[in-house]
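Human:
I keep going back and forth on a fold encoding question. Comparing notes only helps if you start from a blank page. Show me how you would write down a chain together with its backbone fold. Write it directly below this note and I will take it from there.

Assistant:
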Amino acid sequence: RSAIKEISCEIGEYLTLKENGEKRLEKLNEELDEELKKESKFKSLREKLKFCEVCLSILERIKVGIMEDTRKEIERNTKERFFQLIWNPKDFSDVKIDESYNLSVTHLSGMEAIGSLSAGQRQVLALSFISALNNISGFNLPIIIDTPLGRISKETRSNIAEKLPSFLKNKQVILLVTDEEYTSDVKKKIIKNVGKEYEIKLIGGNATIV
């Protein structure tokens, strides 16, 4: 009997150990499942992060591409308008706009000419750039140009008056001109596109619009 009792005690101890072991194993399995879930979650997050990084890279390339296409289009339009308006187009070979939107004019000799342009030529270049920029900007805002025909020869002045409305088509444009600019010839060229005319006079020391 003592042997049976001893064996029974040992069996009881083993059963207790087995029960405890099973509980411990169950707990460890639960912990393993939690860790696996975390690993799966982290893996999913890493995949999402990688996807976002790829998307950002693609969007950056698209942005750079759009900006470059826009710059080239503005450059093309500026060049086209410059050669349409300038009175000596045969003296120049190209107009360029770099990534920082700095303008460059190339002389027929191949030399940079922007530093040697006359005041009138610079005015023509500025008007060409403004109209090209406005044409592609997509913003429907009024444009105010002060002394647009100053320092420009009679022939070119008439040419600008004729072509400026088409360059700034469907835009509200306010031209601040002097009587020397707004000649009868210029008025004849532009009058069909003029909605209102106002004259600013100095009366009693004050500027008055009449």
